[in-house]
Design brief:
The protein has 825 residues and is mainly alpha-helical. Helix content is 64%, strand content 0%. The chain is built from 36 helices and no strands. The protein has helices spanning 2-37, 46-78, 83-96, 98-117, 121-136, 142-153, 163-174, 177-187, 189-205, 211-214, 228-241, 257-260, 309-325, 329-337, 362-369, 379-388, 398-411, 416-429, 436-451, 473-487, 491-497, 527-538, 543-550, 562-567, 570-583, 588-597, 599-605, 609-622, 627-639, 645-652, 664-704, 710-766, 773-788, 790-793, 797-803, 811-822. Helix 3 (83-96) packs across helix 4 and helix 7 (163-174) packs parallel to helix 11 (228-241). Pfam families: MIF4G, MIF4G_like, MIF4G_like_2. Belongs to the NCBP1 family. Residues 707-724 have a biased composition (Acidic residues). One of its GO terms (cellular component) is nucleus.
C-alpha cells in the first residue's frame, strides 16, 4: 500500500514536472493564437477585444516579453490587412509599459533593415506602413517619422543606382500617407510640403520607357492605363487637396484617443537606407489595371474614382488578403467576402438571385434588358483580373485565380457570376487593343471557368467575330477558347454546345494523319518499308532488326550529295516515326511508351541538326489537328534528348510553321522549351555549388583535425582529389549548358528580328500599313519572351546588344529591347 502510494506519488510528481515544462509552451501558443485572431469576427466589439488582449499581454510581459515582441513583429510583416488593429494594440501596450513600446520600435527597425537586405521589399513596405500608423497611436513622434521619410526620398539623389531603387523608396513614402498624412501635415506641414515637392520633381524627371511593355491595353480609352507611381501620386495630391480626409481605413485607435494621447512617444533611431548592391533585386514597375469606374455603377454605392485615395486603399487591402490566403481558395474567398468595407463600396453587383448555370446564357441577358438585373461595379473582379494580367507575371500561379473566382461564384451565386459575365464581355469588346500575353491568360481562365459551368455561354452575342478576318483578335480568341475547351472536354461536346454558325471556328477533329495507311498510296516512296516496319513493331522485333528493315528506304538526298545522304535520310525518319506514332495513337501514354521503347532508333535517325528538325516536322504532320498532342510529344522529345531546345526554336520559326505562327500552342511549346533549358542550367549550377560547399567543409574539417594520423590525412586527400575532379567536370558542364542557353536565346531573337524586318521592309516597299494583326502579335510575342524570362536574359544582355539589338536595327524592333532594359534601370 505504501509502495503503491509511493509509486503514485512518483508518477504524480513526474506528471507535475511535465506540466511545468510544457506550461510555457502552452502559454506561448495561447498568446500567439490570441494575437493572430484579434480583429476577426466576434460577438464582442473590436475595442473591448483589444483592451482585454492588451491587459493579458501586459500581465505576461515579465515572463514572455521576447515571445510577444516576436509575434507582434511577425504580424506587422505578414498580416497587413489588420495593420491598424495591431498598431492600436501596440499603442495600448506602450501607454501601459513605455519600455516595451521602445523595445518594439527598435525591433521593428531591426526587422526593416533585415528585410531590405534580404530583398523582401513587399514585407518591408508593410513594416514602414506599420511604423507610420504608430504615429497615430502616439507611439512614435511625428518629427522622427518625417525624418525617416526624408532619408527615403534622399535616395532619388543618389548617382549610378537603378531607377527602380528610387521608385521603391518613393512608393514606400507615398503609399503610407493615406494612413499618416493628416497627422504629419498637422505637425510638420512645411517639411511635408518640401517632401512632396521633392517627390514631384523626381516623378517629372523619371524615365517611363518601360510603360508600353507593361500595359494590358494599348488604348487609353475608356480607362487610362497609368504607371503606378504617377497614379498613386495623383491620388495623394487629391487626398492633400481634400485636407487629408480619408473615410475608408479602419482606425480603432480613435476609440482609445483619451488613453493614447497621454502616452510618452518614442523617436525613431536614425535610419539610413541600405546602400545599393549589385545583387539587390528591386520590385519591377507596374501599370495600374482599370476595367470599371463609377460610370459602370448606375445605382447603389458609387465606386471611388481612379484618383481617389479610397480606390488605392480598397484595392491594396484586397491584394493583401489574397497574398495572405492564396494557398487556400476557400479561406481566401471567405476573407474577401467578409472584407470590413464591403458595405461602403460596390464590391460586387447587387442583383436578384440567379443560378450560376444561368450565367452566360441568353436568358441572363434578357433579364438584364428587363432591368431585373442591375449592375454595380465590382472591385473584386478588377483586383483579381488585375493580378492575373499583371506583367511580367502574376503574383501567384494562374490557376489560383480561376479557382478563387469559381469559389466566389459558389459563395455568391446571385451576384458574382453576373459580374464575371459583364467583365468577360467588356474584355472581349476590347480585344483589339489587349496585350497578346494577357489574351493568353484570359483564354486560359475563360476556358477553365466554362468547364466548371457546363460550358454554358451566350455564343450568339459574339457572332460579330464571324464577319471578321480570321487573323483578327476576336475570331482568333474564340477559336483558341474552343480549342482549350476541347482539351478540358472532347471534340463532339464542343460541336454540340456551339451554334452551327460558329462551325468555322470549331477545332478540327483531332485525328491522326498516316499517309501509309491507305493502299491507294502504295506508290508513295517507302510505302512497302512502312508496312514492313509496322509488322516488325507488332511482332516485337529488336531495334537491330528494325534498323535493318529501314535500310531499304531510298534516300531522296542521295542524288544531290551522296555523303550527306548517308547521314540524313528524311524519308527514313518519316517512314519509321509515322508508323510508330500511328500504332501508338490511342493515347498519350501509348505514345510516350513508344518513344521510350524505340529511343535508340530515334537517336540514331536524328544524329544531325537536319534530322532533329525533320522529326519535329513529322510529329506536326501526323498530329496537326491535335495541338495538345504535338505539345506533349515535343516536350517528351526534349526530355529524352532526341531533339534539343535550339532545334525546337528553329522548327517553330521555320517557313513550314509560318501558317501556325500566331497559334497559342506554338508559344506554349516555345516557353516550355525555354523553361526546360533554364531548369537544366539551374540544376547543374546547384550541383556545382553543393560540390564546392562539400569540399570547403572537408577542408575545414581537415584543418580542425590536423593532429590526426597520416592514414586519415591520406584518405582525406583522396576524397579532396575526387571532389576537385567532380567540381572540374561540373564546371565544364555548367559552361556548356550556359553556352547552349545563350545560343537558344540568340536563335529566338535572331528569328524574331529576321521576320519582323522582312515584314517592315515588305510593307514599306508596298506602301502599306505595317501595323497588321500579325505584326501586333509578333512584336508582343517578342515582348513576352523578354518579360517571362527576364532574369535569365539579363545575363546575356551584353551579347544581345553587340550581336543583335544594335543601333542599326529598325527602331520599332529596337524599342522593345529598350523597354526591357528600362525595367531594371
Amino acid at each position: 500500500m505504501s509502495r503503491r502510494r509511493h509509486s503514485d506519488g512518483d508518477d504524480g510528481g513526474q506528471s507535475h514536472k511535465r506540466r511545468r515544462t510544457s506550461e510555457p509552451v502552452e502559454i506561448e501558443d495561447r498568446l500567439e493564437s490570441l494575437i493572430c485572431r484579434v480583429g476577426e469576427k466576434s460577438t464582442s466589439s473590436l475595442e473591448s477585444n483589444l483592451e482585454g488582449l492588451a491587459g493579458v499581454l501586459e500581465a505576461d510581459l515579465p515572463n514572455y516579453k521576447n515571445k510577444i515582441l516576436r509575434i507582434l513583429c511577425a504580424v506587422a510583416r505578414l498580416l497587413p490587412e489588420k495593420l491598424t488593429v495591431y498598431t492600436t494594440l501596440v499603442g495600448l501596450l506602450n501607454a501601459r509599459n513605455y519600455n516595451f513600446g521602445g523595445e518594439f520600435v527598435e525591433a521593428m527597425i531591426r526587422q526593416l533593415k533585415e528585410t531590405l537586405k534580404a530583398n523582401l521589399y513587399t514585407e518591408a513596405l508593410y513594416l514602414v506602413r506599420f511604423l507610420c500608423d504608430l504615429v497615430n497611436c502616439h507611439v512614435i513622434a511625428a518629427p522622427s517619422m518625417v525624418a525617416m521619410f526624408e532619408n527615403f526620398v534622399s535616395v532619388t539623389q543618389e548617382e549610378d543606382v537603378p531607377q527602380v531603387r528610387s521608385d521603391w523608396f518613393v512608393y514606400a513614402v507615398l503609399s503610407s500617407l493615406p494612413w499618416v498624412g493628416k497627422e504629419l501635415d498637422e505637425k510638420k506641414d512645411v517639411e511635408m510640403d518640401r517632401l512632396l515637392n521633392q517627390i514631384d520633381g523626381y516623378l517629372k524627371r523619371r524615365l517611363k520607357t518601360h510603360v508600353p511593355m507593361l500595359q494590358v491595353w494599348t488604348a487609353e480609352k475608356p480607362h487610362p492605363q497609368e504607371e503606378y507611381l504617377d497614379c498613386l501620386y495623383a491620388q495623394i495630391q487629391k487626398l492633400k487637396k481634400d485636407r487629408w480626409q480619408e473615410r475608408h481605413i479602419l482606425r480603432p485607435y480613435i476609440a482609445f484617443d483619451s488613453v493614447l494621447c497621454e502616452a510618452l512617444q518614442h523617436n525613431l533611431p536614425p535610419f539610413t537606407p541600405p546602400a545599393h548592391m549589385p545583387d539587390c533585386q528591386y520590385p519591377m514597375p507596374r501599370v495600374i489595371f482599370r476595367m470599371f469606374d463609377y460610370t459602370d455603377a448606375p445605382e447603389g454605392p458609387v465606386m471611388p474614382g481612379s484618383h481617389s485615395v479610397e480606390r488605392f486603399v480598397i484595392e491594396d487591402n484586397l491584394h493583401n488578403i489574397i497574398k495572405s490566403h492564396w494557398k487556400e481558395r476557400k479561406s481566401c474567398a471567405a476573407q474577401l467576402l467578409s472584407y470590413p468595407g464591403k458595405n461602403k463600396i460596390p464590391l460586387n453587383y447587387h442583383i436578384v438571385e440567379v443560378s450560376p448555370l444561368l450565367l452566360h446564357t441568353k436568358e441572363f441577358y434578357q433579364l438584364e434588358n428587363r432591368n431585373l438585373v442591375h449592375f454595380h461595379s465590382s472591385v473584386f473582379c478588377q483586383v483579381i483580373f488585375g493580378e492575373l494580367f499583371q506583367l511580367p507575371c502574376p503574383p501567384h500561379i494562374d490557376v489560383m485565380y480561376t479557382t478563387l473566382l469559381i469559389e466566389l461564384c459558389k459563395l455568391q451565386p446571385g451576384s458574382l457570376p453576373q459580374v464575371l459575365a459583364q467583365a468577360t464581355e467588356m474584355m472581349y469588346v476590347r480585344l483589339d487593343t489587349m496585350n497578346t500575353i494577357c489574351i493568353d491568360r484570359l483564354l486560359n481562365w475563360f476556358s477553365h471557368h466554362l468547364s466548371n459551368f457546363q460550358f454554358r455561354w451566350s455564343w450568339d452575342d459574339w457572332v460579330d467575330c464571324l464577319a471578321l478576318d480570321a487573323d483578327k483578335p476576336k475570331p482568333k480568341f474564340v477559336k483558341e477558347v474552343l480549342e482549350k475547351c476541347m482539351r478540358l472536354s472532347y471534340h463532339q461536346r464542343i460541336v454540340d454546345i456551339v451554334p452551327p454558325t460558329f462551325s468555322g471556328l470549331i477545332p478540327a477533329d483531332p485525328i491522326f494523319f498516316y499517309k501509309y495507311q491507305d493502299e491507294a498510296n502504295s506508290a508513295l516512296p517507302g510505302y512497302a518499308v512502312a508496312i514492313a516496319v509496322g509488322n516488325a513493331i507488332k511482332n516485337r522485333a529488336s531495334n537491330e532488326e528494325i534498323l535493318t528493315v529501314l535500310k531499304d528506304v531510298p534516300n531522296p538526298n542521295q542524288e544531290d550529295d551522296d555523303d550527306e545522304g548517308e547521314g540524313f535520310n528524311p524519308l527514313k525518319i518519316e517512314v519509321f516515326l509515322q508508323t510508330l506514332l500511328h500504332l501508338a495513337a490511342k493515347s498519350f501514354s501509348h505514345s510516350f511508351s513508344a518513344l521510350a521503347k524505340f529511343h535508340e532508333i530515334l537517336k540514331a535517325l536524328t544524329d544531325c541538326d537536319e534530322g532533329k528538325l525533320h522529326i519535329l516536322r513529322v510529329v506536326y504532320e501526323v498530329w496537326k489537328n491535335h495541338p495538345q498532342m504535338v505539345s506533349v510529344l515535343v516536350d517528351k522529345l526534349i526530355r529524352t534528348q532526341i531533339v534539343d531546345c535550339a532545334a525546337v526554336a528553329n522548327w517553330l520559326f521555320s517557313p513550314s510553321m509560318a501558317h501556325e505562327f500566331t497559334r497559342f500552342y506554338v508559344w506554349e511549346i516555345l516557353h516550355s522549351t525555354i523553361r526546360k533549358m533554364n531548369k537544366h542550367v539551374q540544376k547543374i549550377q546547384k550541383e556545382l555549388e553543393e560540390a564546392k560547399d562539400k569540399l570547403e567543409r572537408q577542408q575545414h574539417k581537415k584543418q580542425k583535425d590536423s593532429g590526426d594520423e597520416e592514414d586519415m590525412e591520406k584518405n582525406s586527400e583522396d576524397e579532396d582529389g575526387q571532389l576537385e575532379e567532380q567540381i572540374e567536370r561540373l564546371q565544364e558542364k555548367v559552361e556548356s549548358a550556359q553556352s547552349e542557353q545563350k545560343n537558344l536565346f540568340l536563335v529566338i531573337f535572331q528569328r524574331f528580328i529576321m521576320m519582323l524586318t522582312e515584314h517592315l521592309v515588305r510593307c514599306e516597299t508596298g506602301s502599306v500599313d505595317f501595323s497588321t494583326p500579325w505584326y501586333k502579335n509578333c512584336i508582343e510575342r517578342l515582348q513576352q519572351i523578354f518579360l517571362m524570362h527576364h532574369v535569365t536574359i539579363q545575363q546575356y544582355m551584353g551579347t544581345l546588344e553587340n550581336l543583335l539589338f544594335t543601333a542599326e536595327l529598325d527602331h520599332h524592333i529596337l524599342a522593345v529591347y529598350q523597354q526591357f532594359c528600362a525595367l531594371q534601370l
